[in-house]
Amino acid sequence: MEKSIVTFGEILMRWSPLGALRMGQSDVWEGQFGGSEANVAVSLAVLGEKVGYVSRIPANAVGNACLHMLRCKGIDVSDIVRGGERLGGYYFEHAADLRKSLVVYDRQGSSFYSAAPGMFPWKDIFSRAHTFHCSGITGAVSQSAADATFEALDTAREMGLRITCDINYRKNLWKYEGANAHDTTHRMMQYSDFIFGDQDEWEMATGMKKISEEHMMADSELDMEAYGRYFDEMHRQFPHCSEMMLGLRNQLSTNHHTLTALLWFKGKIYKSKIYDITHIVDSVGVGDAFVAAYLHASRKWPENPQLCLDFSIAAAMMKNSIVGDANLVTEEEILEIL
Prior knowledge:
Layout lengths: L3 E5 L3 E6 L11 E6 L1 H11 L4 E4 L1 E2 L3 H12 L8 E2 L6 E5 L8 E5 L15 H5 L2 E7 H6 L1 H16 L3 E5 L14 H10 L3 E5 H8 L17 H14 L5 E11 L2 E10 L2 E4 L3 E3 L8 H15 L4 H15 L11 H7 L1
Parallel strand pairs: 1-4, 1-9, 2-7, 5-6, 9-10, 10-11, 11-12
Antiparallel strand pairs: 2-3, 7-8, 12-13, 13-14, 13-15
Helix pairs in contact: 1-9, 9-10
């Protein structure tokens, strides 16, 4: 039986005013399912991977609709636990010109908020998997959700799975008593074979000052010697990790970004081209697109890290053209861009 990639986290309902309206202006709101680990699962399924998604959702009509969406994308939802009172959500106001986007979370008391160790049969789940993907968001939702994540990580390591982690730092989420973003995320990263994060996320997780790329343009030259020292220190902190990716983005305006990434692969640094993206439709989920594309590419071309990096950055670039949280581009479309 072919084994799968398993992702774990909270799926949410994203509510947005129409177009560029502010929250106080719109009488009509658009709703769609999203959430980092679910986004990764959807993108992996579109890329042709066998993928399972694990979460806790309510046993009501909203939970049923959520399952229907995931099944339609080809995702195995057989290990999702039903329970709790409601699906978590967030309100998202789109950015416009130089006005930044605005996010208001509504996750406290959700079904996943009360997820806890013992709820998920990890040994059975992982007996059908080769890779486990999680993110720092699960550690930020609640203490019990963080504990459930570490239970999964301990089991995945014990069973020899490849473990991948997106740092996914969301400062507005770390609200529960005793929450410590650095300590919890740093501990999660210790388990990981592959870690992804942007400049600010790596700075939070490692305590090292970031190498700023706030003026990065398509023709910029990156200071590779500085990044060499940076990756050396990151590997010293996370010696188990063999692959680390640093996403670099310069937001010139709402719909104009430059985007690239660096990959540290078993001691060597690879760089890709810098994309100049001038007509952004929706930039939510770009990091998830990076992760999903790399997980797929590194399975298909394990001996070609440069291709894996180039594939990942092209997929992330294309996500900016997709409305919604998840990247819906195929392998063929990405390769055509390359």
